[in-house]
Amino acid sequence: MKAAALTLRFACELAMLVGVGWCGWEVTPVLGFVFPLVFVVVWGLLLAPKAARRLRDPWRFALELVLFALATAAFVSVGEAVVAIVFAVAAVVTAVVVRVWPEMPEPGSLGKPGS
Fold first, then answer.
1. 80 lies in which domain range?
2. d(Cα 55, Cα 79) in Å, to the nearest integer?
3. End-to-end distance of the chain based on CA atoms, in angstroms?
4. Residues in Cβ contact with 98 at an 8 Å cutoff, skipping those fewer than 6 apart
5. 78-82 contacts, C-beta under 8 A, 24 or more apart
6. CB-based contact 69:89 (threshold 8 Å)
7. What is the number of structural domains in the chain?
8. What is the mean pLDDT of residues 32-39?
9. Is 45:37 a contact under the CB 8 Å cutoff?
């Protein structure tokens, strides 16, 4: 179940990039590249499991929801309301599930009971 949740999570992250890229492309091809790049940089610096400056919850959770909400709005803006709804549900569910089954143990927890 954990592997399926993480796979769906990764798919949501990719879909987020597709959505904001598509939305940007509709404005100008340059924004089609800039929007996803901004999302990748923010995710890599603040949200990724191995980010040096990874935010702690609840800030990390809040930023994830903001990025997913922006991607949902991007899908709506290109006329894909059904895709937006499916994406939003999957993104929120995976954002919650990865907190139930964390992808990495907390630093210093290896070797302790329950880790």
1. 2-100
2. 33
3. 18
4. 5, 6, 9
5. 78/19, 78/22, 78/23, 78/26
6. no
7. 1
8. 97
9. no
Is 30 among the domain residues? yes
Among 78, 75, 105, 62, smallest CA distance to 12 is for 75
**Is the pLDDT score of 2 beyond 80?**
no
pLDDT, one tens digit per residue, over 73-95 is 999 999 999 999 999 999 999 99
Q: 109 lies in a domain?
A: no
Residue 25 counted as domain residue: yes
Residue 76 lies in a domain: yes
On whether the CB atoms of residues 47 and 64 are closer than 8 A, the answer is yes
∠ Cα 76 10 40 (to 5°): 70
CA distance 83 to 90: 10
